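Reply to dn_fold:

You asked what the input looked like. This is it:
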Amino acid sequence: MMAKDEHKETRGGRGRGGRRGGWQVSDLPAADDAADWFRGRLPDAWFGDIEVSVDREEIVVVGTLPDTADGAEAEGRISRFRAETREERIEIALEAQDRYQRKVSWGVRLGDASALFTHVAAPVMTRLRQPERQVLDTLVDAGVARSRSDALAWSVRLVGEHADEWLGQLRDAMAEVDKLRGEGPGL
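and this is what came back:
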């Protein structure tokens, strides 16, 4: 018997707390405050600015080093930063992974140089009809991609680059719907 304030989760719908994603991610804690948490947790001397992005599998923290350098010098400073901060970054990542139940990946920018130290490449299952498979096969046959998987990743990046403004508006609208849903009456 379920308690009065509990509800049954359904496949494909909204899970606990009204978050999107269905049964696969229903138990993930919210990570809305991840950027603020990292700003408070990271040593002040590390970065002039940080950018934190979150999805269901990963939190990516990309910091801008306060130095100025370009070319090989920037790459060397990034490499030095990576080596000198490894132990502390691991400690911070473990704390964040415990708090948010997502892997933490790190990256750094300095001048025109940037490096992503680690990141998650999550598999995504999809079913494609022949016309979509033919698009992927054309990209493979033309040498744009090594495999259908690479061709699909390339296509997603291309859409992301060219539809960035629209995707941002869509995310904002979804956030507003989530906010309104949270303010609504409970059942």
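The helical segments are 34-41, 71-100, 130-141, 148-162, 164-183.
Hope that clears it up.
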